[in-house]
Amino acid sequence: MNAQGTPPPGGPANPYATGHEVALDQGHVAGTGGVPDRFENPGLPPHVYRAADVDKKSAKRAERQVVALFLVSVISSFAFLAIYFTLPQNKYVFIPFFGHLNIQHTLFGLCLGLSLLGIGLGAVHWAKTLMPDTESIEERHSLASSPQTRRELVETLHEGAADAQIKRRPLIKMAGGAALGLFAIPPLVQVVGALGPLGKTGQLRETFWQPGMRLMRDPENTPIRASDLSLGSVMHVLPEHINEPLEKLPEKYAPKGGPYHNDQELHILDRKAKAAVLVMRLKEEDFKVAKVREWGYQGIVAYNKICTHAGCPVGLYEQQTHHLLCPCHQSTFDVTMDCEVIFGPAKRPLPQLKITVDDEGYLIAEQGFTVPVGPSHWTKY
Length: 381
What we know:
Largest sheet: 5 strands, antiparallel
Low-confidence stretches: 1-5, 11-22, 197-201, 257-263
Radius of gyration: 36 Å
Strand content: 5-15%
Shape: elongated
Structural class: alpha+beta
Helix content: 25-40%
CATH class of the largest domain: Mainly Beta
Number of helices: 9
Number of domains: 2
Number of strands: 15
């Protein structure tokens, strides 16, 4: 075709060239040269009614299906609570391709997933089958709404609630409300129960330390005499028997329902993560708090080395100032003041381990930690 719109010899005629008539589609208005000048609004397509719109049995069946999905969420939420209060916290099972899985935590995930899935599928099915799906057009208008428009909005919302059949179908309203309300309870119970004032803080409060356990050098795993610590020295220690499986522990040290499980590698890691302790020797007259002196032995004191801010290992000891420093966020603890926080974001002192010596002169724990170790939780001290 050339620049004037003339078709090549034998070619089809150009319908948009000047002087040609154009057959326009319905809704098009011809302009200059036959090109459409504008397009008329074709309007909405005919509304297609759903089965639930015209058949009461279909609507009732859809209602029962929505209620059933919401009930799946309700049951899953109750199952979460039952698992939380009945199953032990640290039982593991080995599953191929996944390794060792905590049974309680795995069931938590399944229950929360089913609870959320029931809410989502129920809401979608409700919207697809029972809520109104009539197409509507809203003309653009100025952003400032008049009082009358606002009143109309309220009326529209009430009409929408009526169209959604909330009042006509109370079962859906009750089941959906129960599903949404109960879904919030399991996460709340998990957080408040594990870390808050409900008292289920075994995984934070219980460590491997028990009365009579010797303090062992790490990683040599050898016992320590009081004479081995010179003035100003610091040593990283772990409890006696820390590397032994549960079945080989002496009867007096076997945990009584503590946060341990039967897999050797995992329970040893669990022990070490919470039982690591720093031992230091100071002059007894340097201590400014009587409790520190009483819980130590001849100036030797032991403190848990997990920072109470975010759980980082506190490993820097300033000999001249007797300060322990966390390298992550610079929380600083004063050993002479029962490891009181003197700088940084930590909110409570490092827990002290009460120590003494046995008949052979080796340092031992007189008792376990009396407060939870690690990052602070909501209990006040």
